[in-house]
Amino acid sequence: MPAMRISELGGEFALIERVSPKGLRQSKWARGVLKGIGDDCAILKLDRERAQVITTDMMVENDHFSLLWQTPSDVGFKLGESSISDIFAMAATPKYAFISMSIKSETTVEFIDEFYKGLYQSFTRHGVLLLGGDTTHGTEYVFSLTVIGEAKIKDIRRRDGAKVGDRICVTGKLGESTAGLKYLLKHKREGRVAEIVEHKEQLKRLRKHLRPHCRVLGEAIKIGRFATAMIDVSDGLAPEVKHIAKASAVGARIFLRSVPLSKTTQEIAKELEHDAYDYALYGGEDYELVFTIAEADLAKLKKLNFKDFKVVGEVVAKKLGVMIRDEMKNEEYAPKKGYDHFGV
User: Fold this and answer.
1) Full residue range of the structural domain in which residue 135 is found
2) Is 132 helix (H, G, I), strand (E, B) or coil?
3) Could you state, in chain order, the average pLDDT of each consecutive group of 10 residues for the chain (344 residues)?
4) Beta partners for residue 152, in sequence order
5) Smallest Cα–Cα separation from 89: which of 56, 40, 53?
6) Are 111 and 241 contained in the same domain?
7) Are residues 134 and 172 in the same domain?
8) Helix (H), strand (E) at residue 80
9) Could you please report the per-residue DSSP string of 229-276?
10) Around Cβ 190, how many Cβ atoms within 10 Å?
């Protein structure tokens, strides 16, 4: 009998569930662990009031980034933003970072300087201090970043607090990173990447993919004051809502036509004859925040001078599952799509 592939197991999240330590919560080693595997960050108790939140993200060349169209600075910046976004998803403050990397033997000093320039630009934007890491060599670039944050325990937001009747909201607009990637891949197939990279106006259209910006601390803290659950958009809106639903033991209904799309996303989708909503629902790497909130608290959040969010759905009973409703009120279960490293 042939060995089972990870894709046959069910992909990335099935793998995570399989390798998660069993019985850790009851063991003596788990003292002070408020949350382990299963959220954007692990949560470790510091004292009665405060906790650390810790996340690790990895980026692999030709999977998470391509040097055909991204500069080393772009790669460093994206690495920082993607990891820090996980800290904000917990409504915590990012503090420290450790980086490990595998680089090619022919890597130039200039490449490393540019990479760290982008990384430090992200760190400066969010007040993060690099404390150390490790370096080795390999055939492709691999970068792994661990970020440590802090928050009051009572202020931390997890995935498991959504309640039936809550509204599902998302910050900013979704799908533009995926739109940019699809556009670049099309031109790569046509052998026309160089003309895109050299065209400044074209690069502006692609900035959300090349150099994405996550939200900032003040916004995450404001949302955290009222959110019942929160997660960042790494893999697309639908998979993130599913994560919240599973952790909270609820169902969800996404209102398709309420999902916010940028003009660029719509233009690129039209050019490529794709559905722009697919980019938003299943694309990922937007690094916006998805959160659930009691309807009565929506106005309170807006009064904090934060209005860059939109209601895109509602939390329903678990038995209803996670559904997508179109403008005709037709509903279907959200398919098993979204970014998966081991997907078939």
Assistant:
1) 32-155
2) strand
3) 68 64 60 84 96 97 94 98 98 99 97 99 99 96 98 98 99 97 92 78 88 98 98 96 97 98 97 97 97 98 96 98 90 71 46
4) 50
5) 40
6) no
7) no
8) helix 72-88
9) EEEE-SS-HHHHHHHHHHHHT-EEEEEGGGS---HHHHHHHHHHT--H
10) 9
Q: What's the Cα-to-Cα distance from 70 to each of 23, 85, 125, 307, 323, rounded to whole Å?
A: 43, 20, 20, 32, 36
Question: In the block, which residue shows the tokens 């803290």?
Answer: 221
What torsion do the CA atoms of 202, 289, 169, 173 make, to the nearest 10 degrees?
Answer: 0
| Cβ neighbours of residue 58 closer than 8 Å, sequence gap 6 or more | 64, 142, 143, 144, 145
pTM over 0.70: yes
Report the distance separating Cα 116 and Cα 108, nearest Å.
Answer: 13
- One-letter amino acid for residue 52 of the chain: Q
Residue 314 domain flag: yes
C-alpha 15/C-alpha 145 separation (Å) is 21
